[in-house]
Amino acid sequence: MLTMDVAKLTHAQLANAVLQRCSQFGSVRDVTILQPPEQPQLAFALVGMRSVTEIDRVVENLGAARVDLLAVIKIEQGQASIN
Predict the structure, then answer these.
(1) d(CA 58, CA 21)
(2) H or E stretch including 76?
């Protein structure tokens, strides 16, 4: 899980912050942000990495879930910095 200022950041800013965080664990292929309109203080990032090993590192280090070849990361409302 990541903690960010979900309510104030745009999808592009959230995606960039997630990309920066996940790049610590390998090569990020893509990041998609899903944000339920009825819950503006919550978002999910679908992160594709270059290899399964890298996805597993993201899952292990960020408490994410692995779905097929993606890491699914919950992003909750908090300070602007990334935990």
Answers:
(1) 9
(2) strand 70-77
